[in-house]
Amino acid sequence: MENTSGVGVLDKTALILGALEAGPTTLAGLVAATGLARPTAHRLAVALERHRLVTRDMEGRFALGPRLGELSAAVGEDRLLAAAELVLTRLRDATGENAQLYRRQGEEHICVASAEGLLGLRHTVPVGVTLPMKVGSAAQILLAWEEPERLYRGLRGARFTATTLSRVRRRGWAQSAGEREPNPASVSAPVRDPFNRVVAAVSVSGPIERLTLHPGAHLSQAVVEAAARLTDALCRP
To answer: How many angstroms separate the CA atoms of 148 and 57, rounded?
Structure first.
């Protein structure tokens, strides 16, 4: 075993995660890639799954888990926030609406950056405000690409459905109108880390009477472009 640390279980764990870097694989594939005994590979992979460092795809194969993306996002958070001020200001100026950046925090999502709109402060979301993961376009974005078990658990009691999230994944943005409160509407798009995992949501929000019941029709392009700029900032070497 190369690059050993002297701590056997950690070295074997590193072998499994390294093997999964190439993509999802079966238990037999893990055994072949790592040289570990089948019972050992299975025991460690299942233990890593419990900690969300490993997950299973729709075919039951082992794959890198969402916890790795969350840890990576934490490392890149300073870079994300450094880029957010300029990106959100440009988005605010382009749309005239409030612009926000959200990250998931357990069963809530938190506003980590914002730019106040030019058309009044009524629908401003201050930095630090936490909102439930059951309502709003940002919640849809932060849930839509989750692993299946976590996704369907998150749908319990939500104001949106699995069909809604399927549509979000297909078109790459989400919209909501009157989900959280009777009046606000919003449009959101995903920010991704270097592993292509969704780590944040960029949003614009404002009153329904101005944004309409279908705000994505005229705001989605600007929001998607803003999210792409933040993704580039995270993925830049």
So the answer is: 8
Phi/psi of residue 206, each to 5°?
A: 180, -175
Q: How far apart are CA 52 and CA 231, in angstroms?
A: 23
SS3 letters across 81-129: HHHHHHHHHHHHHHHCCEEEEEEEECCEEEEEEEECCCCCCCCCCCCCC
pLDDT single digits (tens) 161-178:
999 999 999 999 999 987
Q: How confident is the model at residue 123 (pLDDT cuts 50, 70, 90)?
A: low
Q: How far apart, in whole angstroms, are the C-alpha atoms of residue 224 and residue 204?
A: 11
CB 165 within 8 A of CB 140: yes
Q: pTM higher than 0.90, yes or no?
A: no
Question: What are 45-78's pLDDT values in tens digits?
Answer: 999 999 999 998 888 899 988 887 777 666 556 7
Using CA of residue 13, residue 14, residue 19, residue 21, what is the dihedral sign?
Answer: positive
